[in-house]
Amino acid sequence: MNASSCDVAIVGGGIIGLSCALYLREAGHDVVVVERNDPASGASRGNAGALAFAEILPLASPRIIRKAARWLFDPLGPLSLPPAYLPRIAPWLLRLWRASWPSHYRANIQAQVALIGLAQAEMLDMLARTGLDRHLHTEGVLEVYEGADRFAAAQETARQRLAYGIESRPVQGDELAALQPGLAARFTHGMLVPRWRNVDDPQALAVDIGLRAQALGARLLRREVRAVEAAAEGGRLRLDDGATLQARRVVIAAGAWSHQLSRPLGDPIPLETERGYNTTLPPDALDLRRQITFADHGFVISPLTCGIRVGGAVELAGLKRPPDYRRAQAMLDKAKAFMPALRTEGGEQWMGFRPSLPDSLPVIGRARRHPDILYAFGHGHLGLTQSAATARLIRDLVGGQAPAIDLTPYRPARFF
Fold first, then answer.
1. Which of 71, 161, 239, 358 supports an S-S bond with 95, CB 3.0-4.6 Å?
2. Which one-letter DSSP state was computed for residue 401?
């Protein structure tokens, strides 16, 4: 493919980059997506398939800070940090702690509410207009708890959601058993969140979004971007084969690697990676009615067309440390104990990088010194959920229109 220049070059072919390509191509822009691997083969491939429109509470929160000390002492628990990585991540952890202060936490919830509200509207509209709503499931999510005390402790989350119009319904006894047969008796209470949505296969959806963009004329360039440089008009991508790609606008949506491209541009964004693990079992491994969240254990089990996926947790260990698949096995062992009918044979283990910023909000906006270079990364575990909203905002910026929501909370300059 000859692609020496274009209107908009998008670095990254994950769910964010592909969604941006679709929105920009629909608006008439000449778009090239530059991706070194198969599209949607990174974090977009291995997530739980959740459109988490009820997930408004940041990771950087008082509740997580309270739990973190206990979790960190369990190397296979919901939150893990290898001791050798602590010196490198210490500044990021300090920022996360500051983001959990009450005033910052409340502001971050407001920002998350705004972005999630836009995300729901844009995702549902995008799926409808492209015919991709066949991927959508509307059963909600069932959060389950062990005993009345643990359920009572979770009521604060329900109250905070309700304050923003997100309803949830407590269930127990026969109703809980009907919503999901076969739960271990230790799970006595649950919370059904109807606003939650899921997709049948997150990778398939992302690939289909990319194919829709290509059908409209977007181009895919299979190369690695070594650097993004400002140019007299727009930006320039230096590729691994020595070629360059000139663009009037550049969108950096390279997930966990994005900060490596933003730093030389004068924006050392404090991006870390939440390494997530899962095991995907055959589709007949369990009669699973909807996604189940084991909130106190930090993982979920999801029904997908590609199989039953057991995954979650957070490992803060950067991009280079080898995977520790004991974490995937630990979640699978728990899932078997929690749902005894689960057949655990024949699974495929996976580890992926979820790009995370310390205040739990993504970076969406222009580079500080180069207005023709835009950032769209750092969505943590909400990349799928916030992908269409991010694409809408990037389309607004590229087209010179007022953004659909105030971008102040997501601006790159908030870290400097």
1. 358
2. P
Rounded to 10 degrees, what is the CA torsion of 123, 129, 135, 137?
A: 60
> Rounded CA gap, 309 and 347, in Å?
9
N-terminal to C-terminal alpha carbon distance within the chain: 40
pLDDT band at 3 (very low <50, low <70, confident <90, very high): low
Distance CA 166, CA 159 (A): 9
- 3-state secondary structure string across 303-342: EECCEEEEEEEEEECCCCCCCCCHHHHHHHHHHHHHCCCC
Assess contact for 312 and 59: CB atoms under 8 A.
no
pLDDT at residue number 76: 77
For 315, the token pair is 């490992």
Helices and strands, number each (H, E), in the chain: 12, 20
Outline where DSSP puts E strands in 115-243.
Answer: 136-137, 141-145, 169-172, 189-193, 197-199, 219-221, 225-230, 235-239
pLDDT digits (tens, 9 = 90+) for 121-149: 999 999 999 999 999 999 999 999 999 99
H or E segment at 299? strand 299-304
In 154-246, where does DSSP find H-type helix?
Answer: 155-163, 173-179, 202-215
pLDDT tens, 229-276? 999 889 999 999 999 999 999 999 999 999 999 999 999 999 999 999
What does residue 47 show for φ and ψ, rounded to 5 degrees? -80, 175
Whole-angstrom CA distances from 227 to 26, 240, 355 are 27, 9, 19
Question: Region 281-304: what's the mean pLDDT?
Answer: 96
Predicted TM-score of the model (pTM): 0.95
The pairing of strands 79-80 and 189-193 is: unpaired
Quickly list DSSP for 246-286: EEEEEEE--GGGHHHHHGGGT-----EEEEEEEEEE-GGG-
| Surface-to-core class of residue 322, CB atoms within 10 Å of its CB (0-12 exposed, 13-18 middle, 19+ buried) | exposed
